[in-house]
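Protein: MFS transporter
Species: Arthrobacter jiangjiafuii
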Amino acid sequence: MSVFVIFALNGLIFASWAARIPAAAESLGIGAGGVGLLLLFSAVGSVCSLPLAGSVAQRIGTAGAVRVGGLTTSAASLIIAASLFWPNVPLAAGGLLLFGAGIGLWDVAMNLEGAEVERHLRRTVMPKFHAAFSGGAFIGAMIGAGLSAAGISLSLHLLGILTLATVLVLAVPRNFLPDPVPAHDDGGTQAAAPSRFAAWKEGRTLLIGVVVLGAALTEGAANDWVAKATVDGLGSSETAGALMFGIFVAAMTVTRWFGARLIDRLGRVPALRICMSASLAGLLLFVLAPNLLLAAVGAVFWGIGAALGFPMGMSAAGEDPAHAASRVSVVSTIGYMAFFVGPPVLGFVGELWGVRNALLLVGAAMLLSILFAPAAAERDKDRAVSAAS
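Structure follows.
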């Protein structure tokens, strides 16, 4: 239960900020270009912290890394709140850089703990943890919408959220599993810790990263462009665009909650191929649909297919306790690079081809995930036999 809470809290905090970006822009007196530049600081913070997160978790444990990531995020929220109360764009940029770094460290640490729980249970639960993240994000967005409607300032909103985060990240990780005992060599002495960069030279880890890259780009492109593509491509209202995005998120969240059974029944590789194929079919239907109804059906399949790739990649990277921290860090970095960089690139292409047509580029990443899916196959013999039976 503690891991569910940490995943949900991470999603709630992220969405609490994201849902009220327009309010931040108004407080700071900046337009769309300024908002884009500010968000880039958050992305840079995450991308910089992700490669180091595995080493931090190895040194202080997953519970300690979650606490450091959570407290960093809370401190960043305090800085952002101050930058909005006394409007200051450079201060907001610094706060968002720290915010992204804290979220990135927290993300890797909670995925490491999720992988450890899976090893103990000998069944797939990672998708449910990611469903908790999605559910927390939905709650965070609804809280943001409600407080906005009530006229509560974003500064006060962030103060409340950081107080909640501080309390929970200090208390909840106490219930995490004990950190794995360090491996020993045949002579009984503790084996040397692998270099923090060693996992970047492992072929299987990099191929898992490619699988996650396709899944992350699939999800990130939908998050940023489904609503816009619905409005521009089908001539629909902004309300219809928001509803289309809601359909995608709902399909993804439900699949994450119930998809663990599919993975345990079929194994990771068949489940990955089925999911990514469904996502590809849904993307094509969404892009080519002549009306809202068919586009909505496409969004459902797109969400179903996008749901399990990232959690399965985290499970595959985290199977070996001795190398889990560095491998999860590598795979997370590759995935989040696609998540952050891919959607802006699609935006530039969309200027030339139209947003809906630009989304076809995501299909190429999906094909890569399908092609390299065997890299994520179970290495745990007991779980592999269980999945095949």
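Remarks: Confidence is low (pLDDT under 50) at residues 188-193, 381-389.
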